[in-house]
Design a protein that fits this description.
Strand order of the largest sheet: 11-12-8-7-1-2-3-6-4-19-20
Structural class: alpha+beta
Mean pLDDT: 88
Number of strands: 27
Number of helices: 15
Distance between the termini: 62 Å
Radius of gyration: 25 Å
Strand content: 15-25%
Shape: globular
Largest sheet: 11 strands, mixed
Helix content: 10-25%
Amino acid sequence: MLRIANCSGFYGDRLSAAREMVEGGPIDVLTGDWLAELTMLILAGNRSKGRPGYAPTFLTQLEHVLGTCLDRGIKVVSNAGGLDPAGCAAAVSELAGRLGLSVKVAHVTGDDLTGHELGDAPNLDTGEKLPSTPLTANAYLGGRPIADALSAGADVVVTGRVTDAALVTGPGIWRYGWRPGDHDALAGSVVAGHVIECGCQATGGNYAFFGEVPDLAHCGFPIAELHADGSSVITKHPGTGGLVSVGTVTAQLLYEIGSPRYLGPDVIARFDTIRLEQQGPDRVRISGTRGEVPPDTLKVAINYLGGYRNTMTMVLTGLDIKAKARLAQDAIWSRVPKESFEQVHVELTPMADTALLRITVMDADSRKAGRAFSSAVVETGLASYPGFYGLTPPGQASPYGVYWPTLIPARAVQARVWLDGRQLDHRQSDGPPDHQRPDDSPDHQRPGDVLDRQRLDGPQLDGQLSGSRQPNGDEGSVPQTAPAASALSPGIPGQGEPAIEDGDPPAVRTPLGTIMGARSGDKGGNANLGVWVRTTGQFDWLTGYLTVERLAELLPFTAKLRVERFELPNLLALNFVVHGLLGRGVAASPRLDAQAKALGEELRAKLVEIPRSLLQVPVRPAPPTPPA
């Protein structure tokens, strides 16, 4: 097997993680993900101010472990190169020289399309034409350039924009020699990469049932033990905090996905064919993933300057909250006309006996969105609602960027691999050279030797788009595996539904999160909301109950948006894609929760009628709602 460890889930993650992963136990490859959609815009801002266009925290982590990695033969693969992978690679070489180490450093280019002819670059979600000149434009590359770099002998590989899963798929191609047609093995590696890419989110971080996670404050980072057939075991180093369970892995599988057909440059991975199995404490096996031919296009992430924004937040307390919010707005708009701004967003967030009134204005004119607005809010301080106070001082407007996803023909993008500053001849990696190839043990068989025996395992199910407003077409169906039994955490009864005692009501009004987990996040201007349960009985109920229409009742702000719903019965899960909830992406979103991170928890808190037979632990009925 190939042990691939993660030491970063985002730009700003725990700096000690690389050392923890290298010193905590045996690993073969150390990876880290530094690039979210927002990060490219942040790096563009840094570069415009004369700072690096890559993530310097990668160098901080690497300094802790580079010598040990070289001694043990641990490869390092990272996308921390951002907008300047060549500059990041040069910084790694400089670091090695300062430490007295001899290191072979590779970097991958070809993703940066800034300044290239992109035509109309129609928006992937809306079809609109690109309205402005890009600040950044980067295609999502796959894992083969990484494999080429490793095959050439690189100790450290730095990339720009690649898919997050490529950090696992690339080493897998290098070690096992997967060819482009080995779709199932490639798909399995994509799934493993998707699970570990966000660091501790796979080991209990941000987990809906966080009370089940031991020592979360010292959560260990994840490891994928990748096998030749693409299957894997997700685990973590012994003695670290956190939890690796079917639940924590399911939560991360549902994070920031759309359709069960997970598109990528190396393969389309069918998330509705994944099998999960709890193999032991903190060990979850992932198998059965089917793959399809990848699309002939690549996704391109464009960022451009959208204008300027300013936000003022006021606190409302006590009685008549809605009336106070109306009064506050009337007072503000009497001083600066609401119609004078290109966009105005008002958000009222209840908080027990208080509420936050958050007003954001956006405009191409920085002066109009600046002091002219924020000072008008301050001027109402003694002529507004009782108990007025604010959380934001008056200030200037700040620029914001717009995220613009589009597609480009894959043939128009040429990845290039450089080793110690010299470009390598173009190649499609079929694995390591002979002296680096693994042995012929069962763990290192060619994919075809293993996968043919698995094709008829289990009954056939159809993955489907199960409910939608304006659906994007038929997703089709492929062979799938039966749902695996989900492991329950300690202290929760087993899979069987408890019997109803005589006299008990058939349903109990209780939070939906009593039986349902959730994880949500951003995909450009859209939000993804994945939910799952732990028994087949609960899943049968959930699929009938939580329709697109019901979601609009429970979360009314989704009612006027296009919502897609996908079923993943193999994971006992549903995934909703809420189109347009985040506007033009995280950087441009005026929402308090700009990345939709709390959307799932908001849904879990809603009180609903759940059949008593599905409740795994006794719950008290919710108190009656007081009269309005």
